From TrEMBL:
A GO BP annotation: meiotic DNA double-strand break formation
Family listed: Belongs to the TOP6A family.
Residue span(s) of domain Topoisomerase 6 subunit A/Spo11 TOPRIM: 212-375
Protein name in the entry: Topoisomerase 6 subunit A/Spo11 TOPRIM domain-containing protein
Disordered: annotated span: 48-79
Record keyword DNA-binding present: yes
InterPro entries: Spo11/TopoVI_A (IPR002815), Spo11/TopoVI_A_sf (IPR036078), TopoVI_A (IPR004085), TOPRIM_Topo6A/Spo11 (IPR034136), WH-like_DNA-bd_sf (IPR036388)
Low complexity bias: start-end ranges: 53-76
Gene Ontology MF terms: DNA binding; DNA topoisomerase type II (double strand cut, ATP-hydrolyzing) activity
Keywords: DNA-binding
GO cellular component term, pick one: nuclear chromosome
Cited Gene3D superfamilies: 3.40.1360.10, Winged helix-like DNA-binding domain superfamily/Winged helix DNA-binding domain (1.10.10.10)
A Pfam family matched in the record: TOP6A-Spo11_Toprim
Length: 381
């Protein structure tokens, strides 16, 4: 039987020009700050934090409280101000300036597209700062994470564009080959899994014969479906972010949806946290607002587990905790939760269940019946 194989070239931007642009942006920002000092004015940094007014304030955690200069821009994002003269802003101001200094030097030293020393993890940068005078401002790694996120929003770029990457924890199995800009090729197989590349932005070519992508919430379910040979029997690409997904995993799912145009389905626990994980893939998060377009998979469909599945297969429900009810309330406030999603969330108050409970009727029930049948009948939303 002949199998159709898709080979998709991923357009690459001019890295040198992009880095030059970011260098100029940083230099313009610093010049403006110095001019403020020269004019005896208060140096301050203005930028949007990307928070659309429709999002709940609980959608994102922040290491620091808002400054007094916060306002709302015409786009619905909240404009933030960090003033060097404000006591509660000085440490944040200094930390952002140190990140800008590091990024500027990194970009200037790698304008020739050299990648050997360009990338580093946020954790390694945190330990670098712990050996500098600024260490008194850096008590926790999350503070460095916060500062890097602010810089990406200021520069309107992804962290990989300024030399920071997240070590991927996501896994992939299926007929898929990813060609990278350094000449390497990652070949995934239907019966074995490999990690998602750390910098998915470096993918230049994708080859696959798969019919769809299935994203599962948990590693345990991923391993079960891999053992039951779902990627081979359903000719799909199986992906897991092992819980809340990291940036590389979300970028890969975005590529497979946007560039290869494969249908993408999500299989998560029948509880509010599983629902939220599906929403992270589909709608994004506030923490990544500066580069959300590279991470979204707006065409993803929620395959299950739904409350109607629990009733159909007589799967026992577990009572919700106070934390579950609180999470449902937070999710109901999200702008992307439409009437259909609201209905599912309200039904979720009847009780919750994990994906594993759907495996009980027979050993290969998920791989042989549940998943292919739900896709065939279009039982997703």
């Amino acid at each position: 039987m002949e199998v159709d194989v898709e080979c998709i070239e991923i357009p690459q931007s001019d890295v040198k020009e992009r880095r030059r642009f970011l260098v100029k942006l940083i230099e313009d920002t610093v010049r403006d700050l110095l001019q403020s000092v020269d004019k005896n004015e208060t140096p301050k940094i203005l930028f949007d934090d990307g928070r659309n007014s429709g999002w709940s304030s609980n959608s994102s955690s922040s290491m620091f409280s808002e400054s007094e200069g916060s306002g709302t821009s015409s786009s619905g994002s909240r404009e933030k101000t960090l003033k060097f003269t404000a006591n509660k802003c000085r440490q944040r101001f200094a930390l952002i300036m140190r990140v800008l200094e590091h990024v500027h030097g990194n970009l200037v030293n790698n304008l020739d597209n050299s990648e050997s020393d360009f990338y580093s993890t946020r954790r390694s940068f945190f330990y670098t700062l712990k050996n500098e005078d600024i260490k008194r401002f850096v008590k926790r790694e999350q503070q460095v994470e916060w500062a890097i996120n602010q810089v990406t929003m200021m520069l309107e770029c992804g962290p990989w564009e300024i030399g920071f990457y997240t070590t991927s924890k996501g896994l992939v199995a299926g007929d898929l080959s990813l060609h990278l800009n350094d000449g390497r090729c990652v070949n995934y197989e239907q019966r074995n899994c490999l990690l998602v590349p750390d910098v998915v932005a470096n993918v230049t070519r994708i080859r696959t014969s798969a019919d769809f992508v299935l994203v599962v919430e948990k590693d345990s379910v991923f391993q079960k479906l891999l053992h039951d040979e779902l990627p081979a029997s359903s000719n799909c690409i199986l992906v897991t972010g092992k819980g809340y997904p990291d940036v590389p995993t979300r970028m890969l799912v975005n590529l497979l949806s946007e560039k290869v145009r494969l249908p993408v389905y999500a299989l998560v626990d029948a509880n509010p946290y599983g629902f939220e994980i599906m929403c992270v893939y589909r709608f994004g998060t506030l923490n990544n607002s500066g580069y959300r377009k590279h991470l979204l998979c707006s065409e993803m469909r929620w395959l299950g587990v739904h409350q109607e599945d629990l009733s159909l297969y007589n799967i026992p429900r577990v009572r919700l905790t106070k934390g579950d009810y609180k999470k449902i309330g937070e999710l109901m406030d999200r702008s992307y939760v439409d009437s259909d999603f609201s209905k599912h969330l309200m039904e979720m108050k009847q009780g919750k269940a994990e994906i594993e409970s759907v495996q009980q009727p027979k050993k290969r029930f998920l791989a042989d019946f549940y998943i292919p049948e739900k896709i065939r009948l279009k039982k997703y939303c």
